[in-house]
Amino acid sequence: MKMPNSHRIALLFNANKIYDREIIAGVASYLSSTRVSWDLFLEEDFRARLHGIESWQGDGIIADFDDPVVCEALSHSRVPVVAVGGSYENEAHYPKAVPYVATDNFKLIKLAYDHLIEAGLPRFAFFSLPEAPENRWAQERENAFLQLMKRDRLTAEIYRGQITSAPSWDEAVQQLIKWLEGLPKPVGIIAVTDARARQLLQACLIAGIAVPEQVALIGIDNDPLARMLTRIPLSSVMQGTEEMGRTAAHLLHQMLNGARLSTTRILVPPVGINVLTSSRYETPKHPHVMQARHFIRQYACQGIKTEQVADYVGISRSSLESYFRQELGRSVHDEILHFKLEAAKAMLTLGQSSIADVAVSCGFTTIQYMHAVFKRELGCTPRKYQESVLQTDGNATGLPPSHPHTQLAEQSDDE
């Protein structure tokens, strides 16, 4: 059998970002599903270093054109180039004479905005990034938010904050808290990335702002690392980055075979939303219930009991139980157990921890107890749940339907 000709292809991405990693994964997916034979050049640490790229003896390049330095370095490339980046409202901002595969920034923001509207939130804000050439994609998302606010005749609250750095971190957090405290509540906030959403979430916890009762948050990227670093599970829009990588590889494959695609532009829509706790806003009827749920959300996995929740709120246990029954139709213990279960489901979805580690991390006293809770509430064991989720490919969230209002069977607080 005749082997296909091999081509040397450079991938110029900074894979410290989930966006770039998933585009690279999409390229890999295209290669594995076709007879294309490429020798891929990437730096060993997956960074995009441009020194000497003009003399690289290769056949083609796929590169992240959100970085203007990359765009400039490849503007006179002698080999075929496929650009990947964000979409632009202004047609003139797209790079000239190069095929371009873009994430649809307007659809990303609209999907997040529609989700917050459906949750019943009356006000909206946007946490962006400082204006800079390398943040053009962020400004495009900001502009999309402004368009939606103008369309719906709503006031656009936008905060850009500071670039993350160790020396300015404390000041940046305090300024962010000040902005959050000045927003009318309740409010839904779209963060330009999951990294920015994580900063928002931390600021809310420091300031004692209840999430999602006062501030409902949603990020963009569906970054597993960002979810692992937050106490409250973070909702996020899933970009179509793997599809972008596959599409970019397909275009380059065609170009290597003689196709002329310099005017080709393809916008890839988002995949969906991973809806987690941070954006599950419900209209609160009683402030004590809101306070209690805020406390439970942060510390459920640390083994808290109903009495500790009542102490935090500052009322008797019986009164708090009564408020929970009236407003939510379940006990305080049910609520604690619900959040333990949600945390366990999230860890199992990542597939990076043993069942025993998940049980300990999520505050279950024994593996057997977690097993019993899964069987009772989900009809399967933790292992079966994990296997089903990791095999799931096709629903919007990548997760089985979650039931935040499921009535959990009564157990002793000492369980």
UniProtKB/TrEMBL annotation:
Residues 290-388 form the HTH araC/xylS-type domain. The keyword DNA-binding applies. CDD domains: PBP1_XylR (cd01543). Residues 392-415 are annotated as: Disordered. GO terms for molecular function: DNA binding. Signal peptide: none annotated. Residues 404-415 have a biased composition (Polar residues). InterPro entries: Homeodomain-like_sf, HTH_AraC, LacI/GalR-like_sensor, Peripla_BP_I, XylR_PBP1. SUPFAM superfamilies: Homeodomain-like, Periplasmic binding protein-like I. Keywords: DNA-binding, Transcription, Transcription regulation. This is DNA-binding transcriptional regulator. It comes from Undibacterium hunanense.
